[in-house]
Design goal:
The chain has 206 residues and is mainly α. It folds into two domains: 85 residues, RNA polymerase sigma factor, region 2, helix turn helix motif (Rna Polymerase Sigma Factor, Chain: A, Orthogonal Bundle), CATH 1.10.1740.10; 92 residues, Arc Repressor Mutant, subunit A (Orthogonal Bundle). It has ten helices and no strands. The two termini are 20 Å apart.
C-alpha cells in the first residue's frame, strides 16, 4: 500500500481550485464579499503555518494582515491562474522570512517542536481518549524528523500542495522534495506501524 496513493484519503485540504479562482476573479473586479470569503478561509491556515515558523504571535498576525492588505490593494496587478492556496502560502512564507531577516530577528527553531493542530469531529471512529493518545504518538514520531521533513509533510499532507509547489515555497528542487518526502514517510513507518501511522495522519490532517 503506497501512502502517496492514499493522500486523497488523508486530507480534504486540497479542493478543486476552480471555485476559488472564480472568487479571485470577483476580487479583481472589486468584490469585497469575495475578498472577505477568501480571508475567512485562509486566515486560520496562514496563522497556524506562521506559528510553526515563528513563535512571535504579533509578527505572524501583522504579516497576515499586511499580506491581505497588499492582496486587495494590488488585486489588479496580481495574476493567479492555478492555485490560490499555493499563492497565499508561498507569499506569506516569503514575507514572513523577509521581515524576520530585515529586522535581524533570529528565526526561532520552532519547527523542532512542530505539532499539527488536530480538530475534533463528530464522526470520529475512535473515542476521544484513544484519539488523543494516537495524536500524541504521531506527534512524537514527527518530532524525530528534521525541520525540512516536517515542513514537507505539513505542506504535502495538511495543505495538499503539489511537489512542484512545495519546491517553490521552500526554494529547493523538486527532486529534493521527493527525497525529503520519501525519507520522512520511511522514518515514520519505522517508528509507527503502518495502519497506526495512516489513521494518525488522517486525524491530524482532517
Amino acid at each position: 500500500m503506497n501512502l502517496y496513493l492514499s493522500h486523497s484519503n488523508l486530507s480534504n485540504a486540497k479542493e478543486n481550485d476552480s471555485p476559488e479562482l472564480l472568487l479571485w476573479q470577483k476580487v479583481t473586479s472589486g468584490d469585497r464579499k469575495a475578498f472577505s470569503d477568501i480571508y475567512k478561509k485562509y486566515v486560520k491556515i496562514l496563522y497556524q503555518y506562521g506559528m510553526k515558523l515563528s513563535q512571535d504571535k504579533l509578527l505572524v498576525e501583522d504579516n497576515i494582515h499586511d499580506l491581505f492588505v497588499d492582496l486587495w490593494n494590488k488585486k489588479n496587478h496580481i495574476e493567479i491562474t492555478s492555485s490560490l492556496r499555493f499563492y497565499l502560502i508561498s507569499s506569506f512564507r516569503r514575507r514572513l522570512f523577509r521581515v524576520i531577516t530585515n529586522t535581524r530577528k533570529k528565526i526561532p527553531e520552532s519547527l523542532h517542536n512542530f505539532e499539527f493542530q488536530c480538530e475534533s469531529r463528530e464522526d470520529v471512529i475512535i473515542n476521544e481518549n484513544e484519539n488523543a493518545a494516537l495524536k500524541k504518538r504521531v506527534q512524537n514520531a514527527l518530532k524525530k524528523l528534521t525541520k525540512r521533513q516536517r515542513e514537507v509533510i505539513y505542506l504535502r499532507f495538511f495543505q495538499g500542495l503539489e511537489y512542484e509547489e512545495i519546491a517553490s515555497i521552500m526554494e529547493i528542487s523538486v527532486d529534493s522534495i521527493y527525497v525529503l518526502t520519501s525519507k520522512s514517510i520511511k522514518s515514520l513507518k519505522e517508528i509507527l506501524p503502518y495502519i497506526i501511522l495512516l489513521i494518525g495522519l488522517f486525524y491530524c490532517f482532517s
